[in-house]
Amino acid sequence: FLLWEVSFDASDDRSVVTPKTFDLSEDIDVSMDVAPQSTVTFHVKALIRTTAIGDISNTATITYNGAPQDSVVIITPKEAEFVATKTNVQTEYEPGGELEFLITIENTSNNYISDLSVVDDMESIEVSYYDGSTGPAFVAGSTSLLVDSTTIGTTTEQVSPTEYNVDIAPHGTVVFRSKGTVVDTATGHIINTAQVDGGDVISPPVHTVAAVVQAELFTDAPYYVPGEQVEYHLVVQNIGRGIAKDVALYTQFSESM
Questions:
Q1: 196 contact partners, CB below 8 Å, separation of at least 6
Q2: For the stretch 183-205, what's the b/e string if a residue is b when 16 or more beta carbons lie within 10 angstroms of its beta carbon?
Q3: Are the beta carbons of 243 and 95 closer than 8 angstroms?
Q4: Going by DSSP bridges, is the β-strand pair 173-181/126-128 parallel, antiparallel, or unpaired?
Q5: Cα separation of 169 and 50, whole Å?
Q6: How far apart are CA 186 and CA 204, in angstroms?
Q7: Contact 125, 140 (CB under 8 A)
Q8: Dist CA 96 CA 180 (whole Å)
Q9: Which residues on neighbouring strands pair with residue 83, listed in sequence order?
Q10: pTM: predicted TM-score of the whole model, two decimal places
């Protein structure tokens, strides 16, 4: 407690409490004469420290005829509440390029959050490849999880390359940045799922950049001679940054009339 005030009232005027007054933040240490069939009630108004996180146990001891009696009351803090979200920094990814995500955790309560677990293992994310198979979305060893920002009173402790323990002050915020290099054969969408306090926090799906396919059929011959050979060239070009998957090609050469 930061401070407290003590007062009392007696149901019978014949009851005597010594001393009768208490200084600010003075503990109760009194002697009493209590009238028959009456009560003496003490009132303690205490201001709890803003950094308190555990249970508060308070014990009162009464001794009469040499026999002590203990009375214990324990109050627990109101359960802290938080909101966790995950967003992608890039709106789309380029195969072989870097992809980043932000994990934002906000303490929406008036209590401290202690030892909150944050896990983001991007090495386990899988994606579809251009050949129809699936595999790791990120190049091995390229992923990382780092603290991007914190508010005053918030602390972080790294447990492993993919996990942190976090203490967040009331109405405080912590932001993590996870990133990695996408494999150059990826074509499917990438979803990153982190765990905050054991619950899943899922990012929106990130799709690959678009492929732009162009085809041109041409010949170098200025004219043809009946009975002689003519050569054609068909150039298929992807001028986009994404992988062009399942491109269909069909040609038909018909006899000229």
A1: 82, 84, 103, 105, 116, 117, 118, 119
A2: beebbbebbbebbbeeeebebee
A3: yes
A4: unpaired
A5: 9
A6: 17
A7: no
A8: 10
A9: 106
A10: 0.66
